Amino acid sequence: MKRFLNPCRRYRQSLALLAAEALAEPARDRLNQHLAVCPDCQTHLLELKSTTVSLRAWTDSVAGLQPSLEARERWAKAVRLAASPKVVRGSTASPGADGWWHDVFWASRGIWAGLAAVWVLILAGNLSLRDHPQSLAGKSSSLPPSREMMMSYREQQTILNELLTDHSAPPDVDRPKFVPKPRTELVKALLA
After folding, report:
1. Which of 97, 126, 129, 144 is disulfide-compatible with 93, CB 3.0–4.6 A?
2. Whether 18 contacts 45, CB under 8 Å
3. d(CA 17, CA 63)
């Protein structure tokens, strides 16, 4: 994302090499063409040149210094370790994908942190609200019903039974009652 907002980003390394006078000729020509039209890069190059001038003066003053034998051995060991082949494990993503990941997510890490905080708050709110009705229901069902509650329940059941009875139907006395036959009689009737 930064590459879209800052097109001069790809020239920064070349500007550093140009300031140190270590840039190859073809790349130097392209960079000079860009410098002709970009004031930001011109300013950056002037800052880099002012730094390299002071560094050159410093290197001239310390040119006679030599590192100790222990320091040379440590450096040699570090170089050998850096040159030894290493097994790379993990992501095999291309450098372009890694750069995109860095540009998109790392550049806006404050926004991602804010979103993560909001999600944590939402999750905490959901967890606390989800348990509330269940805890109330669990507390009321764990207590034995009181005598008044049982009497009220019986009264409501009586009223419901009266409402559900059909008063328009004839009483059950006139109807013949169904009497089931024994299984042996059913088997005889089926075989006949």
Report:
1. 97
2. yes
3. 22
Q: What angle do CA 95, 96, 97 make, to 5 degrees?
A: 90
pTM, entire model: 0.32
Amino acid making up residue 95: P
Burial 63-96 (b: 16+ CB within 10 A, else e): eeeeeeeeeeeeeeeeeeeeeeeeeeeeeeeeee
Q: Which residue has the tokens 């030894």?
A: 84
Cα distance between residue 111 and residue 191, in whole Å: 84
SS3 content of the chain, % helix, strand, coil (to 5): 75, 0, 25
Pair 109, 103: CB distance under 8 Å: no
CA-to-CA separations, 88 to 2, 92, 127, 144, in angstroms, rounded: 28, 9, 42, 67
Query: Which tens digit of pLDDT belongs to each residue from 50-64?
Result: 888 777 777 777 777
